Records
---
Amino acid sequence: MTLYSKRSVTEPVNAMSRTGRFVHSYIITGDKGTGKKTAAKYIAMQLLCDSKNACGICRQCSRILRDQHPDLIHVQKEGRSYGVDVIREKVVEDSYISPNDCERKVYLLSDCDGWTDAAQDALLKITEDPPETAYFIFTARNRSFFLPTLISRSMVMDVHEADREECAKALREHGFEEDKIKEAVESFGGNIGRCIEFLEGNDKLMRSAEAVRKCTEAISMRDEYTLAAVLSSISSDRNEMRDALEMLARAIRDSAVMRCGKGSAIGCAAKGSADMAERFSAQKLLDMYEAVCEISSACAANCNTAAAAAVLAGRLLN
Ligand SMILES: [Zn+2]
């Protein structure tokens, strides 16, 4: 299994594999498309592999890669989030039952963004004093979604996008054409997941990217009316809005870095990023970045997305 730019995961996990002593609870954070689920599967492979080396080819590893391993339990959400009952029954109680096929079992709770404190409270005892055979992996876009107590009981690992060369290499392995790969990497940088979505023609992603481009232009023109209209247009779909805000945050972060004289903007909003860098102070850009991140996190929970869009437009240009 090839993992790109995942040293933050592979190094500590390989070290544990060498001693055979693994932490029981893991939190993996990173933007959408940066490979959190791939990293989670890698940890599961290290825990369950027949040759104890995440070989990628043994019976255990190949079933993990096909999402068909009975001891890698993909816990399902109820609606948008993990309910307390699901956590109690499908994770806590179940973890005391012996594994099906291996010496260990792994629970994967993906996209924990916006889950409740009550759901996490239900996990505290089991993560503090887990059954010997049970391991837990949680993923989310950032660590603000986790209670400090759960963080303190877990190994927290941040994953980042690959560099552009590595990303292109990964896309070649997927069999995409060279000129298309170039276009994808120019639009979405080293974010392999987003590049693949783009190359597979994901309409929602293209709409989000277009909205982000318009937002950065409206911000640089200080055109609050257009900004509010664009943000409002994406607020009807919560996931689309979150994706767009994540890309907008990145574009603003690129502007702040450029304002400090480093780096250059890439991606679908490159021109808007460059214009913002010329027209706003570094401090204002950082304030804008924080505003977008805050509203994006609120959208992961239960906030009214239309109201959030309106609040954000005001905060960005005031
Ligand atoms: Zn294996």
---
Amino acid sequence: MSLMEQLNRKALSLSVPLSVHLDVTYRCNERCQHCYLEHDGENELTTAEICGFLKQFAATGVFFLTISGGEPLLRRDCFEIIEFARELKFNVKLKTNALLIREQQARRLRETGVEQVQVSIYSHKPEVHDAITRLPGSLSRSLAGIRLMRAAGLKVTFANVLMKSNARDYPGVQALAAETGSHYTLDPTITPMLDGDSSVVAWRLPPEELRAVFRNQRLVGNVEDFCAPPPPIDDGIREGIPCSAGHTSCYISPWGDLYPCVQFPLPCGNLRQHSFSEIWAGSAQLGEVRSIRAKHLSTCSSCSHLGTCTRCPGLAFMEGNMRGPSSADCEKSFLRTGVVTAGMLAGHAVSPLAPPRSGLVQIQLPSSLGTLQSTSP
Ligand code: SF4
Ligand code: SF4
């Protein structure tokens, strides 16, 4: 077992919040077409409030801290916050679009000891990237920022969110990451907005593109293993927890609201009203999230994919039931393996083209998947 797995197990057994994702602002200097945030900047946490909360996180055992947004560097005190977090010995990851990175900022991040910086790059083609960010010149500015951070000695990861408009551009983004000595990570998940508006889901990759991604050795490694039918379900899987959200990790909004995860908008308490440890230990909502084992899930508990599915309880929550299937993950499991899912049989599968329904992701069996149901085991 790796050191990280041991650490996670220990944190889980002791109910320690190992990782916190803190969005310091929702304001942004880009307007990405698929973004799940409203860019409201009213009444954000102050520097003193954030530093106070960081002390509380440290006292409760938090080790990994992701500072993100919005664009976190739009806050004038962002470096002050990062430096204070490093004084408290957090392992800090910064998510930024790098537009505001100049030589001085790159050097300062390096001197502060930020562990890694993640930058979203959508395409190697300026016209595609800039159309997604809705900011002309953004690709060249982000790449300039990345090169300065690399020159300063920072670890940089290209986060390549795949969607309809850049579906075929990942080889170019991978090449740019390699050329700058950066890591590369791909994410085909477009999530509904945090207020439940699912219109951005229309940007999701069409099924045939997602199927091609899952069969690309440069992206998934061993295709045969990656696309293998799910193994039999055992008691270990049935007793497992859905994911780390609310167990060893949580998310804090720019107003101090605590949620199990950035992708799980279940309000669990506010840090302006209660201390972090009070919410972590006493929130009824977190208690409910923690009580759920795989065997308790409706539909999923009888699914052959239960042990290998990337099912996200946050996406399931946004569809109306945190114990239910996440249709985006149903689709992924099916496109990856060709094995029909329990969720599909129960009628849960999202159509990337379906029109939004107020507050909920549209649930509908797309005809392109429906015709393949005869492959059911
Ligand atoms: S599976 Fe979903 S809720 Fe769980 S950690 Fe991942 S994104 Fe968050
Ligand atoms: S494939 Fe669908 S039904 Fe099966 S475990 Fe995943 S989300 Fe649940």
